[in-house]
Specification:
This protein is an all-alpha fold and 164 residues long. It has two domains: 4-75, no CATH class; 111-163, Arc Repressor Mutant, subunit A. The protein is 78% helix and 0% strand. The chain contains seven helices and no strands. The chain has helices at 4-24, 29-48, 55-82, 95-110, 114-125, 130-137, 141-163. α5 crosses α7 (141-163). It is elongated, with a radius of gyration of 20 Å. The chain starts with a helix and ends with a helix.
């Protein structure tokens, strides 16, 4: 049985290899570290479920994390497009700019009612259909769709007013 020190070494090694992999694929240091952390968490969870960690399993995991991050970036682009910007801004790689962008997004959503926020987040971030959201909110799909459309219209108006 491996000692705690050996376990720490192994996990640090997995993390180091994973960061190196993402850096070699062109990701900036902060994004590579974030992606690697997610991959190592998934590897640890797999090990806890009794899955043997092999290089093939590691490769599949890091690719899965990278695909998930790519889908996240695509969702963010759609969110900006739906909020009324003509073209989605390029997503920043600088952590400070990422934080500011996230704060701006949250600021925009805070101008909506809590129900509108729920609907917008579920549809754009969660990729739920209006029917699925309606079931969760115990409402009708057409009512959820109208709530969403009103919320997007408010966001467009607010972003146009702020940019003017």
């Amino acid at each position: 049985m491996a000692s705690a020190m050996d376990e720490d070494f192994i996990w640090k090694w997995w993390l180091e290899c994973t960061v190196h992999h993402y850096r070699a694929r062109g990701w900036d240091a902060q994004t590579a570290a974030d992606l690697a952390s997610e991959a190592v968490i998934r590897l640890w969870q797999a090990q806890q479920r009794g899955i043997r960690l092999t290089s093939a399993y590691w490769r599949a995991t890091v690719q899965s994390v990278e695909r998930d991050y790519g889908r996240y970036l695509q969702r963010q682009t759609r969110i900006y497009q739906q909020m009324g910007t003509q073209s989605a801004p390029e997503l920043p790689t600088d952590p400070e700019k990422q934080a500011l962008q996230h704060l701006w997004y949250e600021h925009c959503l805070n101008s909506l009612s809590s129900r509108e926020q729920q609907v917008v987040r579920a549809h754009l971030e969660g990729q739920y259909t209006f029917e699925e959201i309606a079931q969760q909110l115990d409402s009708r799909a057409d009512r959820v769709r109208k709530t969403y459309q009103r919320a997007i219209a408010k966001l467009r108006q607010n972003t146009q007013e702020e940019s003017a």
